[in-house]
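PROTEIN DESIGN WORKSHEET
SECTION A - STRUCTURE
LENGTH: 123
TOKENS:
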């Protein structure tokens, strides 16, 4: 598994994941205000490249960045880490906590129930 991303690196990855392929100028425009300095973004890009999350294709002096890891794969790893750290690795404990503490309305709970029932049937 790749090294963890800092919150700033995750924010940058969100931009890259949303665009699929993106140049530095577009990255800078994609940030909300207050926008980070170009040098800060360049440093973050270098760090996430070293960690194996992105790569780039060179067009003259411009680099087009693209993700090397899919967002859902990264998120799955983050969720597994959270379940391990906070719920002793128990998916059932996590699901119980989520069901009890979430603010889902009745319809959303019914939708979740239907999803679980489909998963049970598929097994």
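SECTION B - SEQUENCE
RESIDUE ASSIGNMENT:
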């Amino acid at each position: 598994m790749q090294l963890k991303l800092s919150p700033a690196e995750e924010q940058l990855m969100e931009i890259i994941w949303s665009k699929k392929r993106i140049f530095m100028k577009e990255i800078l425009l994609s940030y909300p205000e207050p926008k980070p300095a170009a040098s800060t973004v360049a440093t973050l890009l270098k760090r996430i490249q070293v960690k194996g999350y992105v790569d780039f294709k060179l067009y003259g002096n411009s680099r087009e960045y693209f993700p090397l890891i899919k967002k859902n794969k990264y998120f799955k790893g983050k969720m597994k880490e959270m379940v391990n750290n906070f719920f002793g690795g128990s998916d059932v404990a996590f699901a119980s906590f989520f069901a009890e503490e979430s603010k889902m309305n009745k319809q959303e709970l019914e939708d979740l129930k239907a999803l679980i029932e489909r998963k049970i049937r598929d097994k």
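SECTION C - NOTES
The chain has a mean pLDDT of 93.
The beta strands are 22-23, 54-59, 62-67.
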